[in-house]
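Standup notes
- DV: blocked on the single-chain target, sequence here:
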Amino acid sequence: MVRSLQQVTAKTVVRCVRDLPILDARTYVWVPRYRVACPICRPKLEALSWLSPWERVTRCLAETGVRLCRTLPVKQVAEFYGLDWDAVKTLDTAALAEQLLPVEWPSVVR
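- DV (later): unblocked, structure below
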């Protein structure tokens, strides 16, 4: 089925996200994203490969912070990047859950 341009309307949503610091300066990226309203498919927001759907930091900053959490405490990583402790802890917990396999409870013996 061919849709005409009159049926599909687009709206821009601007989102502010943190990125890796440049020369020790905090870096914010203002990202315009298109929200397309289609009567058949429902509204959809443009997907970006370098930005997770609900995160406020880029994947590059998140991955770098997680790598630092392997050797440094969460508090020091949060202070180094100027992020909230809870944000760094959430990123670290999500990365650990992604890396570790689920526990097979039938193999555990009491």
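- Follow-up: Residues 85-99 form the longest helix (15 residues).
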